[in-house]
Structures are given as C-alpha cells and as structure tokens.
Amino acid sequence: MSDLELNDGRAGAIRPDPSTPDGRDMLISRVIDAEATGDDWRAFRAAAETDPSIWRDLAEAQEQHESLCEAFRASARVADAVELPELIGDTRPFQHRLDMVGRWGGWAVAAALLLVWATGFQGAVPGAGVQSAGLLPGTALAEATPDQALDRYLSAGRDAGLVVGEVPDRLVIEAVPLDDGTIEVMYLRQFIERRVTDRVFREARTDAGTTVPVPVSTQNLQRSKAF
Amino acid sequence: MDERATDHALIASAMSGDRDALRRLWQEHRRWVAAILLAHKPRQADLEDLLQTVSLQFCRKIGEVRDPEAFRPWLRMVAINAARADGRKTTRQRHGWLRLVGRSGSDQEADTDPGRVETLERGQRLMDLARRLPEGYREPLLMRCVKGMSYRQIGEAMGLPETTIETRIARGRRMLRELASSEMQSEAHEQAHAAANGA
Fold this sequence. Notes:
Helix content of chain B: 55-70%
Oligomer: heterodimer
Low-confidence stretches of chain B: 90-109
Structural class of chain B: mainly alpha
CATH superfamily of the largest domain in chain B: RNA polymerase sigma factor, region 2, helix turn helix motif
Mean pLDDT of chain B: 83
Shape of chain B: elongated
C-alpha cells in the first residue's frame, strides 16, 4: 500500500488513491462501512466522472456485503444460545471441577436429572426414574401383560400430565425371517413425555471427551406448541 | 473510564476468576468467535458444537492469558484450533442429552418468506465463496459482519494494525466480487452447454 497516503480523517487512516485498484477498493469499502470522510467522497465522485463503473462496483459490493452479513447473522445467531458451562466455580482452577465432572457429575441438579432420565440415560444418574415409577403401582405391573402395562402407563401418564402420547409411526430396525416361516420384526416405539423445569442443559465435551452440561438460556428457546 | 479501559477491566476480572465477569465477557465476544469459526471450520462441522468447545477452553484457560491485551488474539487462536481440530476428525458423533429442536435462531430454522429465503440462499453462497478466500482475508470480512465490530477491534483480535485490516477487507470484498462473477460465468457456461446437448 505504498501508493496510499495518510489523510486527516480517522487517526492513522490511509488516503486512498482511486487511480489504483487498492485505492478504488478502499473507497468502495469505506462507503459500505460508513467510514468515508468528506475527502473520500470527493475522491469517489472524481473517480466516477472518469470511470462510472465504480458506481456499479459499489452497488455490487454493497449488495454482497448485505447478503453475506444476513447469512452470517442467520448462522451465528446460534452463538447467543451457547452459555458457559455451569461447572465454572467462583475461582480457578477450573480444571479441578472438570475433573470432578469427569468422575461423575457433581454438577447435577434435580432438573437436569429429570432431563437425563427423560432422554433415556437412566443408568447414568442415581435416583433417575423416580417420577415414572410413581405412575404404576408395583402390583399392577406384576399382574399386567406388557400391553396392559403400557396402556396403564399411557393412561396414568396422561392423567398426571407427564405423558403426551405415543408417536404413531414405528421405526423398523430389523426384519429377520425365522426358520418356521414367520418374520421377526424389531422396531422402535416412541413416547412423548412432558416435564416442567426451570433449567435445561445442552451437552458439551471437554478435550478428554468428558461430557459436561452447559445451561441454555430460556430466552433462546421457542415457546412450546400445544399438542 | 473509556471503552478500552472498561473492556480491559472486565477481561482482568474474568482472568482472576470472577464468574460474572467471565460470563459477561463470553457473551460480549461469542459472536465474533462464531465469525472465526465460520471462517475456519469444515463446511459440515456444527457451529454450535464448536462454540461449546471454545466456551470450555475459555473457562479452563483464560487464567493463562498473560494480560488483557493478549485476550482477543488468544481467544481467536482457541477458536481456530477448535475449528482445525474438528476438521481433522474422521467421524463425528453427537451424543445428545437434550435435543433442542425448537430453539429459536438456529441455522436450521425454517423460513417461509420467499424473498428472505432467496436472500439467505444468496448469502449462503457468498459465505461459501468467502471461505475460499485466503485466511487473512476471509476472517476480517466475516468479523466485519459482527454488529459493532470496528476495524480496530478486528485488528486487536488478529494482532494486526487497523490499516492492514481495512486494506484486507477492501481487497477481500473485491476478491469476493471476482469469485462470484467467475462462478456466475461458469454456471452460465454449464447451462448453455447443457441446453446445447439437450437440443
């Protein structure tokens, strides 16, 4: 940029020479960024008198900048939902707390336990599944067929506001022909459950591969839609 | 206290382990961290995952930053390393405790306005083209899209003078125009070729 001189606009700013490609680009860029000084505009207009294509380049660059920023904002909006891990302590060293999480979540709070349970990690968290157990008396389970037990679970769950329903589609995992001519079908049934909590977490992983919970701001969650 | 001094005071508090300062500092800087990640990550890598990786490093290592001046360059390198490490992975697994399928503002969020969809598609194509620019140009170009991020602040993050940043942004924009124009020409050529073959 030896062909560019300093001007008296922004401290230390360059005075672009529109007769050079770099100077022309810089004038266009300053206009886009609302950084153009009076001198810049005079230089721009003077350049446009001899080379009107600078206006076309400005329009094109401006449009591209707007589109790029729009796409960036759409992609980067997700950043607003990424909060720091809850495990951060009041003082360093943080590594101690990460290690603690690695051994088994000292971070755990009741709401997180519910979510962990609700998404099928019963074995991972002591005490998980307690709410569900309350839906079916032990004697009822012992006497019921699997289908009856399931019906009771759905019915009691709906009454308690903890089960929304079953997803109608069943996902076939495997269909294997058996020796007797029948077919064994393995499939997945899914149920929608509901919990009310004041905190939700998203998973994150440390360098060591340990999973740690990261709180999610409620303002970044959409309001749930009624079923 | 001016803006710079306030900024440094916040960084210093965060470095000393002040939890609130740490949280505020992250919230102030995570958008441009996203810009760095977008400039360096493989196309298929999940931005949110990478941001979480950076946030963990942010918590763990901020105490190792030697002074507030070094904070932005440090955070930039953390982001670049996270993006590059992701690129080295051969397979990606995502184990979800919680899938926030309904979160607002996600990049997967559906948009039904045709005009906006077209703008976003055009922007996404430009974003892909911007990723093909040399590293020193695509970073400032994307960081300039972060609202309120000045040439000076971009320069602080990249460890470069403000004038260099301005020059790179200006040149980067020209390169982007040329790339887009070249893409359009080759698309038109392909279409003409296809039409000729079909006729």
